């Protein structure tokens, strides 16, 4: 009897060990076969690093999809002040009046009419390199909001239903850490005109995005979707309607170019410069173009110093360096046609 009992107990133990081993093996296999495993692990590492610099609510809980969204948070130290944006004074004042003040009023919890509620959809449009992303970051810093710079590639998942879950996580996470600005650069590539040629996953993701967005439009949620585009006419009409507050960010005029040059060169070693002449000479260039011009001027001076003295010394940017850099930038073969078309 005791022998039979011992055999039964031994068999039960072996069976339990075998079942545990099978369970762990299946778990490990499923984990290894998960196509999003690397993305999830990378998101966890990135979130852990970001959370050290971002003061999130202590009680915030995130699921695996919200963790991937949290990895797109921009740390506060990467924020932009209005003073860091050269030019666009009229646009900055308009953004302050029509967007920043209503958001600050909502955060104050003061009684207000619904007419003062901030718009939940903002569109910044204009030529490339004119500061649309900088504007969005400056708004976020002005209202002390979290800034999610949406990476569309994160939302596109080849497994059925995963993209919709990530879109839902985008808005649920934004609500948990509000006030939040969701920024979509090149929004026309993601939310362009819907066509019959769109695949089912893309169509469902767009529909889910609009459904989630509508859920915030008539609520007291402090979540704003901001988009930037060079081609506003390519945006889906339903999305365009959801972004009633639209701002054109144009190419800088003479005075704006002068301010941009002052911002770029304020901490650089420079000789006596006539920035008005340089700004006049740089007619038609965008803010990012001007930054590239200044970088090229610094490299030209560095090369000149090395060729002349056979050593790398202090780089002091001079007037002629900037003038020559503008001419070089304009004369670039791949840029000439585009530059002329922007002036027409």
In short:
The chain has helices at 2-33, 37-51, 64-70, 89-107, 132-142, 152-155, 162-176, 187-190, 200-217, 237-241, 254-265, 275-281, 287-309, 319-331, 333-343; strands at residues 121-125, 146-149, 180-185, 223-229, 245-248. The longest helix has 32 residues, at 2-33. It has 15 helices and five strands.
Description:
There is one protein chain. A five-stranded parallel β-sheet has the order 2-3-4-1-5. It folds into three domains: 1-33; 64-248, Rossmann fold, CATH 3.40.50.300; 254-343, Helicase, Ruva Protein, domain 3. The protein has helices at 2-33, 37-51, 64-70, 89-107, 132-142, 152-155, 162-176, 187-190, 200-217, 237-241, 254-265, 275-281, 287-309, 319-331, 333-343, and strands spanning 121-125, 146-149, 180-185, 223-229, 245-248. Mean pLDDT is 82; it is low at 333-337. It is α/β, with parallel strands linked by helices. This is AAA domain-containing protein. Belongs to the AAA ATPase family. Residues 118-253 form the AAA+ ATPase domain. The chain crosses the membrane at residues 6-26.
